[in-house]
Amino acid sequence: MEQAKLERLDKLLAFVRQHYGRQAATRFAIGGFSAGGYAALRYAQLSRTAGATAFQPSAVFSVDAPLDLARWYAGLEVASARLATRRPDSMFLGEAQYLTGLLRQLMGGTPQQEAREYQQRSVFTASLPDGGNAGQLLTLAVRLYTEPDPEFFISQGLDMMSSNAIDQIALVNVLRLLGHTDVSLVLTHGRGVRPDLGGRRLPHAWSIVDEDDLAAWLAARLGGVPG
Length: 227
Prior knowledge:
With 227 residues, this protein is of the alpha/beta class. Helices cover 44% and strands 11% of the residues.
């Protein structure tokens, strides 16, 4: 969301190209998990604007990222209010409170106060017929991963408004309606566990990705893997 972070991504990509020499092919992909997935998609979108980025990826993937920032804020705000009174011991309460505060700080207010700012910085906006910035992805190969698990969310006192799954599904729908022919949605079941949380069940996790399958998808779109 910040210019300094965009410039840092440019520097990281330049580092990769410098240190991997001929293996840093002209065609490359960028991707990430959660906020990192949002960053990858926004970088890919901005790369289609002349002078906005130093490099232009050919493909982008995202793992359960928040894409519609107004939706994300609304889900976090409701979850925070509900959990504060009914599940104050929830592991999600502190995160929801922190993230709503962070979004207000970065955007200058709530989605109701700064609707245009939220739309401009979102990967897409579900409330707009054309998805807002969604069209900026039409010239890239796109793959999105998510693990919708309503029962898990209900067990935590949450609902699907607190899940990033609805963003992935909605973006794929919009892109296909806009005529995108190389966008895929991977829905998983029972793969979400978090080693950093002692193997705890959590659909919001890198572990939902089949790494071999992702590597094959990337290789097919980047012209194979250099020797």
